[in-house]
Amino acid sequence: MSAHRTDDEILAATDVAVLLRYGLTQEAFRGALFGDGAVAAAVTLDRMGVMPRSVAFVGKVVRAGGLAYAAGLSEPLPSREASAVLRDWLETAARAVTTPEGEQRAVRWLDQVAELMGLRRDSRR
Fold this sequence. Notes:
7 helices; mainly alpha
């Protein structure tokens, strides 16, 4: 992740679903998932008006019920559009992950996305 790239450049170059598919299961992709993937997810959801605490709450749902359960929620986030985006990511992750460790990585990733969203909001104040 370069400090000199704009949000739009990161979004254009980053496929969050692909990074989830490979980053949750393969060590070689993990840095990209937790780097540019988390930034792209945070930018995407932030632009949709999602609050960081909503993403953190979904992380708690994944921790308690698993990725498949969270992906099956009709509206995991307050808005329909953001819910569709997050549900796609959760479904992708649920198909890729087959171990409890993979699910915990997904929770950590959601927590990181929420943290980045909070930092972005704080920096705009």
